[in-house]
Each structure stands twice: as structure tokens, then as C-alpha cells.
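for the writeup, i need someone to sanity check this before i put it in the appendix. the sequnce is what the collaborator sent (i think, or maybe the updated version? ugh). structure was predicted straight from it, no edits. if anything looks off just tell me and ill rerun, i have time this weekend
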Amino acid sequence: MPLPRLLLGLAVAVSCAANAVAAQDWRQTAAHLGGSARVLLVGTRPEDADNALIAWLSRGRHIQTAYLSLTRGEAGVNVLGAERGAGLAVVRTAEVLAERQRDGARQYFSRAFDIGAVEADSVVARAWPRDSTLLDVVSVIRAFRPQVVIALTSTTGERYATRRYTAQLVADAVAAAGDTLAVPSYAAGELGAWRPARLYTLIDSVTSGGRALQIDVGEFDQRELRSYAEIGAENRRLQRTQPPRAAPTPGRLIRTLQRVDGSNEDAVSLFAAVDTAFARFGAAIPASARLQFDSLEMLLSDIQRAARSEEAGAVAARLAQVVSRIQQFAGPLQCSVTVVVQRCTGARGEFALSLHEMREAATRAMLDAAGLVIDGVAARELVAPGDTVPLTITLRNGGSVPVTLRSVLPFHQDGSATGDVAKPMVLQPDSLVQLTSALVFRAVSRHWWQNLGLMSGTKLHVALDPRRSQLIRGEDRLASSGVTAQLTVGGVEIPVTVGPLVARTPTALRGDMRHPVIGVAATSLLLERGAEYERAGMVVNRPFRVFVSSARASTDTLQVALTLPKGLTADTAVRLITVPPFGTRNVFFVLRGTLPPGPQLIQARASSLRVTPPQAMGATLTPALEEYLTGTVINEYPHIPSKHFVRIARDRIESVAVQVPPRLRIGYVRGTEDVRSALVQLRASVTPIELGLLPAYDLTGITTLLLGTGALRSETSMAAVPALQAFLARGGTVVVLGGGAEIARSGLFPYPIGAELMAGRAVNDSHLDVRVTDPGSPLLNWPNAITIRDYAAWRTDRTCSRTTLLDPRYGIPLGVLDSADRPAVPAIVTARVGKGTLVHTTLCIGSELESAGSGAARLLVNLLSAGQRQPIR
């Protein structure tokens, strides 16, 4: 079966990702076939999802449930690894999809790129233009067709503008989804109008009124022997990039939903008078399909009874009949039964969507009841375009009834199969067959939402498909690879698709889906850093490494070269190397020279060469067509499939005009970021120190102690505070980067102070977001004069935490604000402690140093030099 037909929904995508609960849940699925109630929850970020409520809806009430996250959480924290921004979006998307596999809900995203904890409405309006984001949400509503929409944020009582914006957007989209004059069908994926019957907002029960509905997510699930709150909390743990949340307490746990759709009636139940019974579709279908509808309705009634007691093989045969009966509606219904029902309005369109959902659920339950496992394994994880990867497809009938296999065909969105790998055969109970095939890869795999970058002047991804097909299909329905098969169960032929194709090591168990097969560039170039510092005007004489790896199945000869900025030269212009199949090489150059102030670029490139004529005396090398400018990084995770990241083989060198006091000696206690390498690049003297060993450490010669972001959260911080205080009393300088509640708890600060962690902030108006409150402060004037250019050049988030309580005895040389009409929030605070100086900043200096921002480097040197006053030579 060709892939385009698959993507039109003629085969049912069935995920075989590890999900023990779902694998044993086919009886529950069969017993609740025919349900057509749908609820859409909408939040700003992945962490806004109410996992307990989703579990209660999806697993507890068997309601078709979906979560729409406006963003992928690009600006959030990452307590798991080093991914930030677009890279973090890739990881967080996979985490959310892993949650949906467990709770059975759908997952959608809009095209919005997260801008963090912004408080000014004007900033959000510029980043996320209303017309574009409204179109995204309307498209999802028309695709999923929920009777109930729940906004997880509110237009009132919210501190952050992004959350207020989301709540208003949901209300506007619910109204516009049913109006094709306001949002024409051609603009929203050619989807027909759909108006949800109910709109709720999740609120604090304290503020609830008479129209509020209360749901007890603490309700006990007899099958799982846990509450839905506990089930949701376990699912939520898959978001390991986010800080852990407190476990729910046993007993009642209420979610309060407030009606906000303009109706005056009280909310007595989630759907109230909304008819969600399957029988209601009888009036919407053509007369020519009435007999088929009655037959399907009777079959559903029978299987709902049989699912609780009949033998698995018999239930599988009944489920196959359901799938077959649904397929018969394709003609008379005149509305394609696909994952996205286009050009099909009203009850008929809703019926078509319900049929598709039912067929998908019935097929999945049928495979489980029949004990049928289809597993596609590739010989390797990374495949270069033009190469072929061998496949082994295993089919195991672990059930009690025979299954006839009509055909099997592997697929990949970036490749094509070499042909049908099986002739018709019968798989007897307790039998296994292994088939071989291969895929020829055509292209490099990419994350669809990142292909075209952001729209100019906004924080919105450019849609890859003008029809918005990826967005409205749902992230959980985008099958990148797998195996399609035509099966006959109980005399009924059914198409199924199982995926993804994966690569496994010899020690990996079946079911390990952590290494999906992807297409990568044949040659990968990686540099040690993507951004680094040099001191302007100082002599450069150092090695520069280019790491080369090959995904080719054949030996490759490469010509590796560097493009250097003015002021630098390399010991050689080009190096010629030979890389074996799937091999790696390190290529070294020696850089010499000096650089003027400002950003400079080093670009690595490799050209694949051909030997002409091959294996001949006096053969010559001629350039091939392939030139490589990027590298591929594969990161492995314990809880989600491995992810690939493409990086341009470019090193941005920030040549900084910075003065460093010669007697400055820094003792560095690492936090969540490692700023030591940046300080070493600035040629400062840095000694790493473990916080737990600080009381026993000889600090003689150390002038400044730098505590990285979050260092005071360490369990050993309390024991280290007396040593820090003694160091301050003797005249030392202590600089504390970032931090949250631990700032107040540490006991280090001499006067009352409080801080809270926050996500990143947009800096669209860099001239507005910095306020110098003490222009004469030495911290802003020595040894480097900090000017507006230093703040305007900031590349990453401005602040990572917020000062919430501050004693007036602190000095405040600098503040930040996100709107001209808001007061500045302290960004740097100082205090004298004994003979020393204590400095705390909420600026994201750590992440800015990782991006080699010049302003952060100059400012940090000033903070570290607070106790120094000797002249610079």
C-alpha cells in the first residue's frame, strides 16, 4: 500500500510503543465502542495539561479527549539536560506524546513558539499575531469536533499575559469555529464549521459560583487500584525536563469548571443536555445507509456485552466485523472516514469522524485480543540518503485463532520499500514468522514544524503545508514509519499499520522503541562549541577541532576546510581525509592571529570526493556534488525515543573588549549551567570548588566566590553558608547567580530577601526592559563601562528569576521591566557583609554566557570584580 493512501487514513495507525496498561485494555476498549463524546482541553504549554482530569475523562469515562498546547514549551526550564529553545521543543514534544500513549488522549499543538513568562499583553500580541493563532485553534476545534472545550487558563487572575492570551483565544476560537464567514473553510484546512456546545474554564474552587461544575479526580479506579489523580501524576512524570510536582493526596480532589459560554443555565454535568449517544447519528445518514447503520448499532450492542466474558479469539473476530462494517459506510456516507474529515459539515461530518475513531480503536483492540504482534526492526538507526537499510519484520500470532496475512510492506516518510515482502500465508496460533525487506532512503528526516523557521517579526512557525495538514491531523497521528499489513481475521480483511520502525542492539528486548530509524546527512561535521569568547586584540594561538562522522555504508574521501574571519589564519587551508563506512575522524587545524571587537564566524565545510578512474594507477580526486555544512547529534533518553538535532558547523566567536583585573582569582561552585569555560575563554583565573568541600577549602588567594544558578539548592548548602559568611567578613566577594526560594532559606543574605523561579522572558523591546537605577554604581562602571549596547546585544532570556521581597538596605544598581508602564523589578542587588561584598542577580547570565553574549561577559566580570580596585594595566 503506498504511503499517500496510508496518510489519507485508509489504514489505521496503531502505535506499538511500550504501554503495558493499554496492551491489557482491549476488553475495556471493546466494551465502550460507539462512544462519541469528545472533550478538548487547551493550555499555553505542555505542563499546563491537567493529567488527572485527562485520566478521569479518557480512562475513567471513556470520553474521546484531546489536549491542545499552544506552544511546545521552548522557553521553559530543563532540569534533565542542556537542550534549550527549539531543541527543548523536540524533547518536550516527545514527552507529551509519551503521556498521551499512556492516557489514550490525542495531542495537538499550534504554531506558537514559547516566549516565556511575559507579563505585558503588548509583547504577546506582537509575538503571536491573533489572526494566525486564532486560525490554528479554530482548525483544531473543527478537526477534533469536541462538544466540550475546557480552557486551562483564565482571562482574569492570571499573572502572565501568555496565559490570559490563551484563555481569550480559546473563547474567540469557540465562537469562530462555527462561523465560516469569520473563518472560511479554505483557510482552516478545508474543514467544515463546528460549534462546541459547552465552554468551561478550570478555576480555583474558592472563586466558583452557582454555574460551576465539580469533578472529583480523586475518584478510585477499581481496575488500576489507584485514583485518577495518581494515574495522572504517574503520567506527568514523563515530563522529566520539568521540575517534579508533589504527589496527590489520597481522597477527594476536586477540579472546578466554570461555564463561560454565555449560557445562563447551571452546569449540572459536563455534557448536560448535549446528546452524545451513538443512536443520534441515525437521523443524519442517507436512507441508502440506514440498514448498514442499524446493523452496526446491533453489532456494537453485541460486542459490548461479549467483551466482558467471551474468549479473546471470539472478541477479536467480532471486532474485525466492526471494522469491516465501518468500511462499508465510505460510499453511501459520501464523506471520507479519515483522521481529518474535510468538507463534511454538521452531524454527517461528526458521524464520519466517530466512525474513524471507532475503527481505529476497534483495530487496536482486535490486534491485542488476537494476540498478534507486528514488529519492524532495521539494521541501523541512522541512514544516509541513497543508502539501503535491511529490515526484519516479525509477525507473531500469540492468540488462539488463525490469522491470514495477505501482504506486508514497510514504509518510511523519508524512504521507500524495495517491494512487498510476503505472499499470502496463514499464521496458526502460537506461531512466528520473520520476513526480510529493505528501505531505500531518499531524504534527511526533519521535525516538520521547524522546517521553514519562524514568520518574520513573530514567534510563530511557518506552516509546512498551506492546508495545515500536520497541525490538524494531531501530533500523535503523524506516523513517520512502520509496517502496513493486510490481515484476515474471522473471515474479514483489515488493513493495519504498526510503527515505528526501530533499530535495536543485540541486548535490547522486543518492545524497546527508543531508537526509531531516521535519515541523516551522509557526512556530519561537529565543532566543539557553537559559540565561544576571545579577548579582542589578544594573540590567538590554539588548536581547532572538527569532528567528522559518516552515515554512509561505503568508504568516503572528504576534503575538510575552514572559512575564517579576518585576523585569523590556519596552518593549512584544506585537509584530505578518508572515512570508513559508519566511521569517524578528528580533523585538527591550528588558528593564529588577533581579532577586533565584535562577532566573528568560523564555518567548517566538507566536500565528498570521487576517485577517477577508480582503482587505477595515477587516479585523481575530483569534487563530487555533495557539500556538507551541518552535523547531526543523537541524544538518548531513558523515558522517550532518541532524538536527533541538526547543528550548523559554525562557531561564533564573540571577540569581547573586556578588561579583567589581573589579581582577580575566582572560586567557582557550579550550578545548573557551566560558566567556567566562558571565564577561561576570557582568560580569567578560575578554580572549581565543590560546595560541600567549601568549609575545608583553603581560600587563600581567592578574591571572589561565584555560586552558579541553583547552587544553593544543594543539600550541602546549609553547611557551606558559614564558610561563605566568613569569607565575606574577611573582605571577599560572593556573587550568586539566579535562584528561587532557596535564596531566602539559605541564611546567606544579611537582610530579608525573596526570589522565585520563572520561565524565560521575551526581550522584543530591549530598550524598555532594562532600567539603570544607580548610574554611578561601580558594578556598572569598573573595570568595564556597561552601556546600553551591552544590554541590547543580549541573545537569550533576560531574567530567570524574580526578586519578590527586598529590604531597602540592599543596593539596586539595575532593574528590568517588560513594559514602559510597569515599575522596574530589581535585577542586581548588593550588600556589604563585614569587609566584603555580596552580589545577587536574577539575570540569565549563565545561559547568556553559553551563547557567548558580549554584554553578559563584561557585566559578569564587573560583578566578580566588586571587591577589586587596582588599576588595569
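The longest helix spans residues 346-370. Residues 27 and 309 are 9 Å apart (CA to CA).
thx in advance!!
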